[in-house]
Write a structure and sequence with these properties.
alpha+beta; 6 helices
Length: 173
């Protein structure tokens, strides 16, 4: 395609410019609420707005400009309070350092006191999924110690055995 007009070195430089992709970092966080029932009131758009406001408070407009290029809430589980935030690799530390400034989430003019606990920082969604499976398994093992009845114990043991990478093995995205 470029071969008769330019040399091999110029063609390689052109391909490098075209083929470079933007690298991201993913922050896997747990939102810890004062009242655990508040978890079910959160939505992705409210989390995005709260994170954006925290970045602006911590780093100003420059910080938000850097982080906003690819800032996104990629995953939200309202039942467990687990979220996955994506940010450009070069600026993920700005995002990470702004999270402690979040003290509440707002939804429909109601404020829910909370804080963000960063569980893992990864380069891909898949590494975050693998970490989350291991984290959930450890949490279930802690629950197993507190079981009082045989039924509770069997239920937790079934949950522990279902924590595996089987679902991820079939998914190559």
């Amino acid at each position: 395609f470029l071969c008769g007009r330019v040399g091999l070195r110029e063609a390689a430089a052109y391909l490098l410019k075209v083929m470079v992709r933007f690298k991201s970092r993913y922050l896997l966080c747990e939102i810890v609420f004062e009242n655990p029932l508040s978890r079910q009131c959160i939505e992705e758009k409210n989390i995005y707005k709260t994170v954006k406001d925290a970045i602006v408070r911590a780093h100003g407009d420059f910080g938000f400009g850097c982080c906003s290029l690819s800032l996104a809430v990629k995953y939200l589980n309202a039942y467990t309070g687990i979220i996955l935030l994506r940010c450009r690799k070069d600026f993920y530390r700005m995002l990470w350092s702004a999270l402690p400034f979040i003290t509440f989430l707002e939804n429909k003019n109601q404020k829910y006191p909370c804080f963000f606990h960063t569980l893992h920082v990864g380069g891909t969604i898949r590494t975050c999924q693998k970490f989350l499976i291991q984290y959930n398994r450890k949490q279930l093992l802690l629950l197993l110690k507190d079981c009082k009845t045989k039924g509770e114990r069997e239920s937790v043991e079934r949950s522990i055995s279902s924590c595996s990478l089987k679902e991820l093995e079939g998914d190559h995205s």
